[in-house]
Amino acid sequence: MGLNRRDFIKKSGLATLGFTGIGALGSKSENNSGTQFLKEGHQQRFNMHNYAAPALDVVRVGFIGVGSRGSGHVRRLKRIEGVEIKAICDIDPEAINRMLEDFDEPVDTYTDGKDAWKELCERDDIDLVVNATPWHLHAPICLYAMENGKHTATEIPAAQSLEQCWALVETSERTKKHCFMMENACYGEFEMITLNMAREGYFGELIHGEGAYIHQLMTHNFTRGNYYDMWRFRENAARNGNLYPMHGLGSVAQSMGINYGDQMKYMVSVSSGDFMMQKKTRELAESDPFFEDFVDNEFRGNMNTSIIKTFNGRTIMLQHDVSSPRVYSRIHLLSGTEGVAREYPEPRIAKSHEGWLEQEEFDAVMEKYKPEIIKRVGELAQKVGGHGGMDALMTWRLIDCLRNGIPLDMDVYDAASWSSVVMLSEWSVANEATPAYFPDFTGGAWKTNEPNMDIELVRGGNTTFLS
Q1: Among 10, 22, 112, 267, which has the highest number of CB atoms less than 10 A from its own CB?
Q2: What's the domain range around 135?
Q3: Sheet holding 304-310, edge to edge
């Protein structure tokens, strides 16, 4: 089961992926052509969309990364029936020790060096590896875990290059192991109700969608010790584009049937200038030597706006802003020929241009289209917690699917295509909003794929939360 580094690179496909322009997405391209990212001759080895892996009565889990985000995943999964936590790994021994306080039973730990996570992946008594590490480790850990026979669930984004996106797809297809990107916003109550409404035709034909990650994180990202080696600050200091599109894109993509019936075709992206981050860095550098190396960096623009066109003629607008003092918003807007829904600043539904539904009618529509997954698990998930219950519902659903041998709600094609927005936006920004074309990670299967998120729990739904 173990792989040395040479075998790992060879088997994962990282050494043989045949397309150009990937390594320097943040810089202006010589040929200035967004079509350079289309991989020629790709053929799907096995369709992981709606793939049902063999059922697991007990899901044996290993965690890699148990800091603030990862520790929450551990605590929530401990509350779900049919989960056995076998091992936890973190480069920070203190994070391990804090996590062990929540365990009554023995659990193996890995904290000896930056590659300790590989030992966890190589164990033969783990079914699922949960990955809550810094962004640059998401794809390498998922690839290694799948090569060693494990399903994977990773924090977002799933990849930091198109090479990694393709490697995830091809490895998942070859090993028939799931690569699940933990996009918790897809499990928000309003998002799931409006997904059901879209499927039931409430909005008519969807025309346009909007999503965002507008979240003031200046203090969070610039405070020493919040993230290991200040990795999130470093990302903002080195890359210019939409670095975190999944929270806004995921639910809109599902409602539009992206990767099953429609697909993102191309995108254009523009970033504002940086009016805040370099200034903040220079202020901090006066008293903290760490920031001195970054005072001349060209930081990511404060606001990035990207527009996506789909093959079926729909458009999606995405925004990313984690520095200016705007009120938190994921927007989540769905606009169709017969209606519109918008979540922020407060949930609203309209059937005409004359105005939003009155509260009584709005409540009746919400109740009518509330899917079974919310009726059955929503209230319990809120009690377990994590972003208003979204995290708990997401992890419950993942385990329920694995235990019942049914397809996951989000597959490796979602992980690759949603993550690819990061790299394509960088390239488009660097090339003055030149259109960047999306690779077809499904190998054409999107034209016949059926929806995969079973919000009515036709199958499964029998896993319980523990007290």
Answers
A1: 267
A2: 5-32+47-182
A3: 348-350, 340-342, 333-336, 206-214, 315-321, 304-310, 264-271, 436-437
